[in-house]
Amino acid sequence: MKNKVAERAKKKRRALKEAERRKEQENLLKKFNEIAKKHGVNNVKYNKQTLWQTFMKVDKEMVKLSIVYSVMAVAYCLRKTFGWGKIKIYRYAVDMNRYITSVGKQDRDIPALNDELRTEAGIDCTKIFEGYKPYMLKKVSLQKSSEAEAMFEKIKYILPMVIYPLYSREGWKQKRMNRLGQALKETLIDILESDEIDNIKRTMYEECGLKFYDDGTVDPN
Domain extents for the chain? Predict the structure, then answer.
């Protein structure tokens, strides 16, 4: 009986995922046509499957990069806001790298992680950036703002994953989580809008001797 229930639930999840994929594909193709028309290109011909595959490849790389940025931001906050040293930050970064290298396998569990963080640790990751939109107070090109918004959406989604170890391993609760949330918001906005990632890498190297690479790996020297 349990096997049948599990199988039905699995089929339902697959059906929902496929419906979401089709809807996302339709929206992508619609946007593609709209952009083409804005540039005076009508009746554009393209291979829909190739376009979708390209989008999925870029999307997956963006997810990986959003995790890398978020891990670096958390590490920076642990150093600047909480005074963590090299060993503890390195241990956190190594733990998180497991998720970076296997992105796409754990991401479906992220909403469950946020639910647990909200009920057990007193932090709702969906509210950290409430009311914020990239470049809402600055004038930038449409391309730049679109790229920042796309990255921002990925970062918001994966935040529970990069924060969760501080609850599960360190036992953090509401007070420290709220401090982290505020510091993390400011740091990630600086990364998105001011390209502060290189300065963060430099700070972590100079103060902790940790060298962060673009693929998410960390060298403790």
Answer: 1-46, 56-219
